[in-house]
Design goal:
By secondary structure, the chain is an alpha/beta fold. The chain has 12 helices and 5 strands. It binds tryptophan. It catalyses: tRNA(Trp) + L-tryptophan + ATP = L-tryptophyl-tRNA(Trp) + AMP + diphosphate + H(+).
Length: 327
């Protein structure tokens, strides 16, 4: 029998080429190997204030891009988190085995809470704290063997494993202790304007991020403005985060390895690098957006199908968990 894999993506902001290269593309290549459950984490988007129209657009757009990028609804159960109410219900049940201490030690909580306040907890939304419990519910509801996450989510997955172990001990549940498949860090795409930081879908700086919804011309222009350095020699180095990032983008889209890429750019200028990468990305977006348009009208149909499959497993598992808990 195929092993089961779960993954989710938070519906805050639009998808970027970083999301595509670092997480979507590798996940798609796993869909033959595993029984895949992939969802748009639209409930997680509520941990920070978000305009409802924006949320509605984001979640639909992510779903359509997932289809356009190559998730096959026959192989992957693709759905919206909020359409399976069992996620929220299990979330409550799991709170019984989690402490405030544990949750407040999560670095993502500390970072995001710090941005919201100067030690004023009145300003920190509760959802920011309890976020990892909902994530645990997302996972344990399907009892997977594997979870794909970015490196920044490993601490949350560690907590999930702890909660699963606790439940197995206290309530004699049979949760698998899920293992992480980490999105390939060599494919981590950095900001174009500040290449020491990850390319972020919620960045405020206009030229830092290439969204999958950018027009090919916009994307091309952003790459021409990308930060490099003054050496004008193309190679990988920690001291050259901008150039290394452009090389990584090149490798991600062409499938060439490091040596091949360096050979390709031997004795070439930064201008040539930027033009080449710009054209490749623009071309990719043009093709993708054509498929996106076709898929946008199919989102409801496929989401319904996915939700039906997910619901069946989620409700039967939740029932079993509740019985073990005496409910
Ligand atoms: N927290 C994850 C992120 O920000 C998204 C997510 C929500 C997730 N629930 C999940 C990932 C369950 C894996 C499994 O990337």
């Amino acid at each position: 029998m195929k092993k089961r894999l779960v993954s989710g993506i938070t519906a805050t902001g639009k998808l970027t080429i970083g999301n595509f290269l670092g997480s979507i593309k590798p996940s798609i290549s796993l869909q033959n190997e595993y029984e895949n459950f992939i969802f748009v984490a639209d409930l997680h988007a509520l941990t920070l204030p978000i305009n409802s129209q924006e949320l509605a657009e984001n979640r639909k757009s992510i779903f359509a891009f997932y289809l356009a990028c190559g998730f096959d609804p026959e192989k992957t159960v693709l759905f919206f988190q909020s359409e399976i109410s069992e996620h929220s219900e299990l979330y409550w049940l799991l709170q019984s085995a989690t402490t405030i201490g544990e949750l407040s030690r999560m670095t993502q909580f500390k970072d995001k809470a710090r941005l919201k306040q100067e030690n004023n907890t009145e300003k920190v939304p509760t959802g920011l704290l309890t976020y990892p419990i909902l994530m645990t519910a997302d996972i344990l509801l399907y009892n997977p063997n594997f979870v794909t996450v970015g490196a920044d989510q490993l601490q949350h997955l560690e907590l999930t494993r702890k909660i699963a172990q606790r439940f197995n001990k206290i309530y004699k549940t049979n949760f698998n202790i899920p293992r992480a498949i980490i999105s390939d860090s060599s494919q981590k795409i950095m900001s174009l304007t500040n290449p020491e930081h990850k390319m972020s879908k919620s960045s405020k700086s206009k030229n830092s991020t290439i969204f999958l919804s950018d027009t090919p011309e916009e994307a091309y222009k952003k790459i021409q403005k990308a930060q490099t350095d003054s050496e004008n020699k193309i190679y990988f180095s920690k001291e050259k985060p901008g150039v290394s990032n452009l090389l990584n983008i090149f490798m991600g889209f062409t499938g060439k390895n490091k040596e091949e890429s360096l050979l390709f750019f031997e004795n070439k200028s930064y201008q040539f690098l930027k033009k080449t990468v710009g054209k490749i990305v623009a071309n990719f977006l043009e093709n993708l957006q054509e498929k996106y348009k076709e898929n946008l009208v199919l989102v409801e149909i496929f989401a319904k199908k996915g939700a039906k499959k997910a619901k069946k497993i989620a409700s039967s598992n939740l029932q079993k968990i509740k019985e073990k808990m005496g409910l």
